[in-house]
Write a structure and sequence with these properties.
Length: 431
């Protein structure tokens, strides 16, 4: 099939590239010409293991192309996926300005094309009602009567985890398809049956599919905050919360995933999606107490790691400190809502002399966001560690797990990366 993907960011690029593995022809659309030009040369705007090889092969086979031209993408497409950002406003509510812009641009482009059957699929994370009441309404109100009878709308939420997104796409737990008619159901089912068995495809109304995405992310975020709540209690009791969660996770009704206590969750999804769902629910008259607590616990976690150091040293003023990790999780260069960034800001507030930091992938992104002259970015892990005796571990990169690296160091671990066997002093945030 011929597939257009509007938005070549994390979701759009991974989705479009992976479709080419089954020989579907994909055109990516982005408003940033520099990004488009780089993708067409095989230079990716994101770090994601395995994705660059897929993109390069697709380009060689002429199955993938990026463009700024909507007409080029839409004129031959069987379906169009919308994968643009849905950021948070200052109050935590959902900002749909990019959805509105894309809808208007699609409608304008379609008016210059011959009407035909076309499926428009929302891939962006949007609150219930957005696809039908905003995206669809804008398009239907702007296209000709002949086009109105040809268009079908659907919602297909993504469940990709950064760092293993390619694996998640190719081996998903489920594919959720929210549809308004059989045309959308049949076309999307046919597309995804190239990747999964029929029993993994869930067909729902559009609003249900929209809420499944939010409910899933909110529940996982809640599990992390629950683990941190129990972890903070375990710390005061002098027991290991990881042993506690190993026992809790053995219950098949609960499961062990997302129960690792630590600095808390970050990234582009969990904080934004929980905040949006919280505001959405409150707007409908629901207090959403559990979601509120989930965010509050998460907000407070980085300060607890700093407090451990303050308890040991009395003050951090004029000390030099190493912070390992800048990305919100390993195997990505994404620093959005990263707890490592929050940790560094808290350390700077304590008047430290310098922060020496290293991350295998995220330093260039961090430099754009953290420009304080007290922050020293090091090219190697060894150089960073040689710069100070006090070490904070903020991201669980595999290369940070070598116990020998920390010999003679005083380590405050926010992610249970090491056991501290060689460290001069070792303490974990919740253990």
């Amino acid at each position: 099939m011929k597939v257009a993907v509007i938005g070549s960011g994390y979701v759009g690029l991974v989705t479009g590239a992976c479709f080419t593995l089954k020989k579907h022809e994909v055109v990516l659309v982005d408003v940033v010409k520099e990004k488009v030009d780089k993708i067409n040369k095989g230079i990716l705007p994101i770090y994601e293991p395995g994705l660059d090889e897929i993109v390069k092969e697709a380009l060689e086979e002429k199955l993938l192309k990026a463009t700024t031209d909507y007409k080029e993408a839409l004129e031959n497409a069987d379906m169009v996926f919308i994968a643009v950002p849905t950021p948070s406003k200052e109050d935590g509510s959902l900002d749909v300005k990019y959805i509105e812009q894309v809808a208007s641009q699609i409608a304008e482009t379609l008016e210059g094309l011959k009407p035909r059957k076309l499926l428009l699929v929302m891939k962006s994370t949007v609150l219930p009602g957005t696809t039908e009441n905003i995206f669809k309404e804008i398009i239907i109100n702007k296209v000709s009567e002949e086009w109105k009878g040809k268009l079908s709308f659907a919602m297909n939420p993504e469940f990709l985890r950064e760092g293993i997104a390619v694996e998640d796409f190719l081996n998903p737990d489920r594919v959720v398809i929210g549809i308004e008619d059989d045309y959308g159901k049949d076309l999307l089912s046919k597309l995804y049956l190239d990747f999964v068995n029929e029993d993994k495809i869930l067909i729902t109304p559009i609003k249900v599919a929209e809420l499944i995405k939010y409910a899933s992310n909110a529940f996982l975020a809640m599990k992390i905050s629950f683990a941190n709540e129990i972890g903070n209690l375990s710390k005061s009791l002098g027991i290991d919360v990881y042993q506690v969660m190993d026992g809790v996770g053995m219950d098949k009704r609960i499961g062990r995933a997302f129960l690792n206590a630590g600095l808390g969750f970050g990234g582009s999804c969990f904080p934004k999606d929980v905040s949006a769902l919280l505001n959405f629910g409150r707007g409908l008259g629901h207090k959403m107490l559990l979601l509120d607590a989930t965010l509050q616990i998460n907000k407070e976690q980085p300060k607890k790691l700093v407090d451990l150091a303050l308890k040991r040293y009395g003050s951090l003023k004029d000390k030099e400190i190493v912070v390992l990790g800048l990305a919100f999780k390993p195997n990505t260069d994404d620093i959005r809502e990263s707890k490592a960034i929050e940790l560094i800001k808290l350390l700077l507030d304590e008047g430290i002399k310098a922060v020496h930091t290293y991350d295998p992938a995220a330093m260039e992104n961090a430099k754009k966001y953290l420009s304080n002259n007290k922050i020293k970015y090091h090219a190697t892990l060894e150089n960073a560690l040689s710069s100070a005796e006090i070490v904070f571990i903020a991201t669980e990169w595999q290369e940070f797990k070598n116990e020998d690296l920390y010999e003679g160091k005083e380590v405050f671990d926010g992610r249970r990366v090491i056991e501290g066997k060689k460290a001069k002093y070792y303490e974990g945030i919740c253990w």
